[in-house]
Amino acid sequence: MADNTPAGSTTDGAIQVGGPRQPIDARTSAPASYDVADFPVPHGREEEWRFTPLERLRGLHDGTAAASAAGGGVKVEVSAPEGVTVETVGREDARLGRAGKPVDRVAAQAFSSFEKASVVSVPKETVLTEPVRISVHGEGGVAFGHQIVEIGAFAEAVVVIDHTGDATLAANVEYLIGDGAKLTVVSVQDWDATAVHAGQHTALVGRDASFKSVIVTFGGDLVRLHPRVVYGAPGGEAELYGLYFTDNGQHQEHRLVIDHDTPHCRSNVAYKGALQGRDAHAVWIGDVLIRAAAQGTDTYELNRNLVLTDGARVDSVPNLEIETGEIVGAGHASATGRFDDEQLFYLMARGIPEAEARRLVVRGFFAELVQQIGIPDLEERLIAKIEAELEASVA
Q: What residues does the SUF system FeS cluster assembly SufBD core domain cover (predicted)?
């Protein structure tokens, strides 16, 4: 078990909504860019790739993956409440790239390879009472995608992006959150066991705006997600939550960057994972950058992992970099361990069978994050998925 709480916080670069930006990641070997040629083909020795089994990316990292013919990659469907605009746009649309540039070769490959982007726009001062639901269903092929979610000033919305089926997918998602707006996004990776999914999610948070991300990862052979947050003006808040259940042979990797380059912004990160089975591998990287201009920053990040069986591996690396002492607070923690024997003993001493006791402990471990979703039918589905995973471990 490791618990690291340094006097450090990492972050940012000065950013304006709609303006040019140069996001910096202290642990990448190349600058952010739309051009694939600016990123060398990774070999696994680079800091940002050292945990990723490159051979399982199926060519997404080296340019050998080619998009399938029409209808052979993924099918995207959007269900939106009245008042929401849903568009399919070409590469010339001015909103593309506003949140930030790709920060690794796979993200750059996705940006240069997609043909059409999907844009969901919520008008200013609109408060949605139902979520926008985006279904991304894999149909067995290779696909490159780009999604933009744009929330106008003082609007409020919940967006669910649900990934299912089988595909080899590289896709970028941009969230543009206007001044005073509130956006909650739930991204579910419930892929079939053979799917591969790599993606960069970048949120640009406006003045006094709030962004909440909940990433849930269950399925897939390999899932590698890169959530990023940048701030366009003071007063922005970001909450990043994650839940993953890594099973036999799966590789699930979540690499977060929060770039505090703007004064008086806040961020909070909490990711939890459970692992079971031989060669189950979970990777969590949490980079928080607090730049010299970001006085008044308040940030904290947490990663906890519960190892259910022998043969599973966790790599958890929280990082804080601070360039100013004028902050409210900054900290991080990481912990990995097995079942708490005292909890199991307490439950079993009250007549609860061991399998049921284990199930209750895991449900309690994840309960706080599931409740962050706020959509009853989706919460019930995810609880059922956790139950199914636990039953498989007992069988």
A: 138-365
